[in-house]
């Protein structure tokens, strides 16, 4: 697939890295020539220096025969105009744009085909806010992903010493919880993936990815670790778009305090938010945290635009007694360094956003993609089509499907019914199949598995 990416920042660079590994024809456009040279040195891609919204630059990038334009520069207006130019002059089939400003996103009809022709809108702030919200709703989870409109969730938890399942094989889970159906999709032990079987034994500190119907998630989590009580008191550091959206979502069900350094922004937030206590000050100010009884806080969320402020304020809050700390980190290289110590959960906004973009790049009828383990693995929701003659999955039991190595089917959603994957479950046309792929090199094989052959009409 020929893809043009506008913007070589964190999101654009990470996306180019993902897609270049998968034998796509990638061209990256940016005004920063040095950043492009650095990407070109590492990746097998073309680069073009210049403003991504200029027709001459898009022509130079090969927009005339491109399959897809992905505009992820830091400027909403550049992304929007680039999509308009690509549509008007080059008839680019698929146009994806990152748009951050709420003022644009709330205007109904603005992004219709006859107005600003953007096929897919990506709002990183909303993606990250939803990601954090799910983690707050599931205390103890490292990651919570939703499929089939929320009917199914894939959850990552760390197995703690003393948990009921630690030291037991996975077959014990089914015997111990006969009324709850779940499947362990993968286990990461000392950062190495394990494809689980019935006799796989869970060890303390294993990172376990399991899939279950939404209603059963808490029950399964309790088997793997001590059950954390629900978060009630939330402190948010940073009143930017993510901090404001999270506070707005939580303030009617939680006690929320928001710390913002800018006085003018504090005034705006206090007018927009109804029940949130807005505090003017620095999240790294020990005295302020003491005055606000940080030791009573259930979760401290550091969501400023400064990685160092987020890391330092999180460490300070944790040492002063906050039960959990969640930290937003833009520099992906920091994520592995800090998570698991004093910082309980580190979130990379780039990785959260990448999944939304990959959903529209995958071949076959792929409706959901989540990038996991800093891009090393993926969770995919694909729709099965065809019949036994035209499809490699329809009409076959899961145990008969020739899955690529390192791939597991976790669940099938049929209408509103959730079927956890067992070897005797037969896939039907129209089923939503949820897969876990630990080896990104096998993605193309997974896509081919769900593409319909020529005999299907």
Automatic annotation (TrEMBL):
Cite a GO CC annotation: plasma membrane
The record's Pfam families line, in alphabetical order, gives: TrkA_C, TrkA_N
Q: Which Gene3D superfamilies match?
A: NAD(P)-binding Rossmann-like Domain, Regulator of K+ conductance, C-terminal domain
List the SUPFAM superfamilies.
NAD(P)-binding Rossmann-fold domains, TrkA C-terminal domain-like
Among InterPro entries, the record links this protein to:
K_uptake_TrkA, NAD(P)-bd_dom_sf, RCK_C, RCK_C_sf, RCK_N, Trk_Ktr_HKT_K-transport
Q: Where is the RCK N-terminal domain?
A: 1-122, 231-347
Can you give the residue ranges of the RCK C-terminal domain?
142-226, 367-452
Molecular function (Gene Ontology), one example: potassium ion transmembrane transporter activity
Task: Output the PROSITE patterns linked to this UniProt entry.
Answer: RCK_C (PS51202), RCK_N (PS51201)
- UniProt keyword terms in alphabetical order: Ion transport, NAD, Potassium, Potassium transport, Repeat, Transport
Q: Specify the protein name.
A: Trk system potassium uptake protein TrkA
Q: Which organism is it from?
A: Billgrantia kenyensis
